[in-house]
Specification:
By secondary structure, the chain is mainly alpha-helical. The chain folds into 2 domains: 12-83, no CATH class; 86-180. The protein is 58% helix and 7% strand. The strands form 2 sheets. It has a two-stranded antiparallel sheet with strand order 1-2. A two-stranded antiparallel sheet has the order 3-4. 21% of the residues are buried.
């Protein structure tokens, strides 16, 4: 029996063996003593990638499962960390990270991140700046935004655009803060 629905044999999906192997290791890590040093973290799950194979697992089903798994690991990590520090210290750490995010996002439009050379593709500056505006409203004004929106945001490509690694790192930090204060 398959863990997830499969894509048609002529279509690409995630490599079945890689996904199954990852899920076994995730279960072992989750079942381990919560106080032990975790070998797998929510951030590790967020950065997990699988090879593509014809007839593999449905990417949308696996991605949804990974998001739920990341949430479960993040909640566990949050509880472990809160046991080590007071609630006030925990939220102060989240506030500090949120402030660092806001400091980056308050840079001038078009200059919030490093740009790649004109010959290289990066994230479309206008797309990123528009989403950055939404993030500022989330952090400063409490405008509703879900972790799902941050996880699934996509940007068009543009020559001379923003450096993807920097933007992705900021989005990871936003996700961490959102999960920390849930």
């Amino acid at each position: 029996m398959s863990t997830f629905p499969r894509s048609p044999k002529s279509k690409l999906g995630y490599d079945v063996d890689q996904v199954d192997e990852f899920l076994v290791s995730a279960r072992v890590a989750y079942d381990a003593d919560a106080s032990s040093q975790a070998s797998l973290t929510a951030a590790d799950i967020r950065h997990t990638a699988f090879s593509m194979a014809k007839g593999g697992y449905s990417t949308s089903h696996v991605d949804a499962a990974l998001e739920r798994l990341e949430d479960a690991f993040a909640a566990r990590e949050r509880e472990a960390a809160r046991g080590a520090v007071s609630d006030a210290e925990w939220f102060e750490q989240a506030r500090t990270t949120a402030q660092a995010i806001l400091d980056r996002l308050e840079r001038p439009i078009g200059h919030r991140f490093q740009r790649v050379s004109f010959l290289t593709l990066g994230y479309n500056r206008h797309d990123v700046d528009r989403f950055a505006g939404r993030l500022v409203k989330y952090f400063q004004d409490g405008r509703p935004m879900s972790v799902e929106e941050v996880r699934t945001v996509t940007f068009r490509e543009q020559r001379g655009g923003y450096r993807e690694a920097q933007v992705d790192l900021l989005l990871d930090s936003v996700t961490d803060v959102m999960l920390a204060v849930r």
